């Protein structure tokens, strides 16, 4: 099933690159799946990590995912999907609100996704400094800090995983000392 999800996601993201880079977009879902696999061996969660952006960015429907990968994978992807008709702040606020009550499996997906994003941001922040924020729709670094630091707080139940500790370390690197 994982190999099928890799092929499906590769096809969906074919020809696209990560924002502000020449890195093929598929690298992000692949990395997200690897990070998720460090926290769980559940193949459906790993598949959802691979597919987490196909509805949001590639026009795939929930019913297509259900047909290809089953109801659970489709539901996991839906819970990780943002409503792109809303503003950045509305989308991020909705994600944070959802995380207050989310299952551990959703929190694993979110941590995997956000850590992958933060790794890219931290690497490019070293090279570009605050100029990096110009590549995003939301250009205010403090808004990104608000979002990523709240993600850290809401995912603290995953602190036993090394990837959570990496997430916190990268937050400190990019945004400054975080609260305990």
From TrEMBL:
Which SMART domains does the annotation name?
HDc (SM00471)
Family matches, as PROSITE patterns: HD
> Any stretches that span the bilayer, and where are they?
none
Under the heading SUPFAM superfamilies, the entry gives: HD-domain/PDEase-like (SSF109604)
A Pfam family this chain is assigned to? HD_4
MF term (GO), any: guanosine-3',5'-bis(diphosphate) 3'-diphosphatase activity
PANTHER family per record: GUANOSINE-3',5'-BIS(DIPHOSPHATE) 3'-PYROPHOSPHOHYDROLASE MESH1
**What name does the UniProt record give this protein?**
Bifunctional (P)ppGpp synthetase/guanosine-3',5'-bis(Diphosphate) 3'-pyrophosphohydrolase
Q: Which species is listed as the source?
A: Lacrimispora amygdalina
